[in-house]
Structures are given as C-alpha cells and as structure tokens.
Amino acid sequence: MNFIILIIIIYILTNFVESTHFYGGTITWKPTDNTTTGSTLPIMFTQSYQWRQSGPLTYCNQSYVLNHSPQIPTGISKLICVTSNSSCGGYNALNISGYCTDFSTILDLSSSQISTVQNITIGSKFCIAFQGATWIGLQTVNCVTSASTTSNTTTISTTTLSSCYNSAPRWSIGCCLDLSIRLDGLINTPPVTNIISPINVLVDTETNIKIPVIDANNDVIRCRWAQNTSLLDECGDVCGIAPSSTLNSNDCILTFNSTGTIVGQYYPITLMIEDYYRESSYLPYSSIPLQFLIKIINKPSCFTKPMVSSNLSNCTPISVGVEFNFTLTIQQGCSNITIVDLFRTSPLNMYKKNLIQVGSTNIWIITETWIPTIDQIGSQVYCAIATDSNNIQSDQYCTTFTVLPVGQTLNCPTDFILNRTTTTTSTTTTSVTMLTFVTTTVASSTSMIGTVYVNDNSGLNSLNLGLILGFGLPLLLLLIALSLYCCCCQHCQFF
Fold first, then answer.
1. Do the Cβ atoms of 463 and 83 come closer than 8 Å?
2. Alpha-carbon distances, residue 46 vs 15, 95, 151, 297, 371 (angstroms)
3. Model confidence pLDDT, tens digit, residues 438-453
4. 243 with 270, same domain?
5. Which of 137, 305, 363, 422 has the highest CB neighbour number within 10 Å of its CB?
6. Are both 220 and 282 inside the same structural domain?
C-alpha cells in the first residue's frame, strides 16, 4: 500500500513541477519506408519541445547536449493515443522526454527532441496528444477554464485587448495520423516546422512572424488557428485566435499588435500547419501543431535589434553521414554592446561552437557542425535567435534542410518554404531594423484571413465520456485515499 501511495505522490509532484516549465513545441510523424508491402508501416514520431532551463526537471547544460543524457524533462508524461484503442493501429504511448539540443542561461530556455519508430497498421486513422496542466499565466481569449482541468485554476477576468488573464491554463498539443494511400499512390509525409519560444515583442509595436515550414511532398501548405474539436483537442485552454493578432493562412504569417499591452505579459500562439494536394483541395492530408509564446518586453533607449544571417539557401540538401558546416553572422544593432548568446532549435547531433567577434567590428560569427544520421532522412527545420548585452533579441532566423540517403541526388522539394525572420514596425516611432525602415500606425485586429475546415467525428464524444468515467473516478478515489493517509500518518512530512 505504501508503495502505491509513493507512486501516486511521485506522479502528482512530477506533473506539478513540470507544468509551469512548458513553453510549447511541435509534433510530427513520417513513414520511414514508403515501399512496404506488409500490413504495417514503420512510422517515425518526432517530438520537439521547449522548456524553462532553470526548472528542476527541465535543466540542461553542455554535458547533457554532448552525452545525450540525461533526457529532459525527467518525468513520466506520455504522448498518448486519444482515439479508441481499437483504432490506434498498434500505437503505444511514447515518453515525451527527449535529448537536450540547446540551452541558454540568459534566456532561461532549453530545447529537447526525440524520434521514435513504431510499426503502425496501414490505413489507420487516429490522433495522439501530449496533454497536461498548466502553462504559466497567460493572456487568452478563453476566459473560462476547461471543465476537464484538474488543477486549482483561478481565472482573473481583467480584460486587455479583448483578452483576460488565465493563471493556470491547460495545454494540449497533438496531431492526427492518416495512413491511407494518397492520390499519388504514397503514404503522406506531413510538413515539418519549429520555432523558438518565447518570442520577445516590444511593447506598442506590430510584429510579423513568418512560420518556417517545409513539406517533403511539396504539397500546398496552409496554417490555421488550433481548435478543440470532437476529433482532437488541439489546444487545451488556449484555443482560437490570439488577442491582437491576425493570421494569413495561405502565407503562414502571424501579425501581432502589442499596442496597449503590458510589459511582462505572455500570449499563447497555437497553430496547426496543414498540407493539401492542390490549391482547390478541401480537406488536408495532415495537421501538425506548432505552439509558442509571445512575451511583451520594454522598449529600451536603443532598440535596434541584432540581425542573424547566413549564406544558406531556403532549403539546403545534405547527405547522410557527411559532415556539414555552416556559419551564422550576427550584426550588432546598437553600439557599445556585445553579443552574449545564440540559442537555437536544431536537429539532433548538430553542435555549435563559441561566439567569436570579428576583430573590433560589430560583427560576430558562430559555426555549426552536423553529421546527419540515417534516421534524420527527410525535412529538418533550424531556427536561431541572438541576444546582446542589453538583453535585446534579434528576430528569429530560420532555414530548412533536406537530408538524403548516401548517393542520392542532392535536391530539395520545390521552395514552398516560409521562413527567415520576423520584422517589426513601431506604432509610435520609426523602428530601425537591419532590413526595413518603416513608420506605420496599425489598428488592433483579431480577424483571421482564410477559411478553416475541420473534420468532425461526433462519435468520439461517447469515447471521451467513457475515458473520463473509466480513469477519472478511480484516480479520484486514490487521491481521496492519499489525502486521508497524509492527514493521519507521519510519512507525509516531506510535503
């Protein structure tokens, strides 16, 4: 009995400690062998998340990166199938802990990635998700906490720009698999995306954020706001259009207007990236999540940002097992400062060297080295952000890679790639960036450009109810027993 109670305590503490250290991420999947003739297909699931680096379960340093150990976060959370077990195609729940790919003590940020292959029945259609509670306190349009939230959530209904403060919103990040044969005779390979979170946005500015995307099938790509449907809860308590933002669904460009916001506020962005066979297609082949935060920061006396660049093209083809090196150039935005940090979301096994100043100039460089492995064949997204000694961040620099088998012609999919950087224009003064010099006044807008089509499967409602009754009641009884035990014995003094 004591052992069971200890397991419950560990589970509760793990989820509690881990909760406020989640900064977002993305989940994707791909067939590793499109030519199989059996009844199952090897599918690689890739999870990429970002965390608070100072967290006890999400801490990372250079040793973690080089040794691929230990994994972060240390815990027992799972990427589970949220469809009925009979429809999951043999999928088994995956641990969400991954290998640390980078960390920053200055940004208090760490990133993780892990890929796992499972044999899934061809023709299967099911959804998977990583769900938990809670995010840090966020400004959201959903001012009522979800009924399924199990934490003691207090929502403060003070509105700012048609938003309210939610102190403990629940998260849900996931995607659905469809292993049916496409019109071109293939099993689909979904898009790949990533981004650094949180993105710092100066108060009283308008910022355009281009979502980096690459699709191995060269499909038509569109972006939409995540939703909570009967098929999949894509976003927990932070669904829908983000306050003060507009999404161009065809170009995957998010515009965020921070006029009237308060320094220190966080805004959640929950998107789904979808691939379509042609422009006129009604339903997507797949929907891949991308979730990140926007943080409002003060406008310093000099707010000209550093700029990150390289000589890479939008998509760079690379061969498995061949060392690939490239250099990022960082140009200072303000005088009398230094570049102190470069954080990136990178493919596994890519290692950065030290930042080096070029003589006494305002130019800094950093070199990346990568030897792709066979399990990285396909599309990869890389993003980087530089920080100077005034704590001013660059816009995100993003690019993409296509990893190919040895001996195959080094080609990329046609450039349906939306990436590079964000651009900022001030709503009160002229904002000087490295690429644009613009003065503009922008009205706050929360409209969405484009139309969203969502597959609905109301039959899953009864499934969700069954899961709640099947698992919720026993867990509730265990928690009650735990409470009684803790109140009546001395074994719980460590609380």
1. yes
2. 22, 11, 28, 32, 18
3. 222 223 333 333 223 3
4. yes
5. 305
6. yes
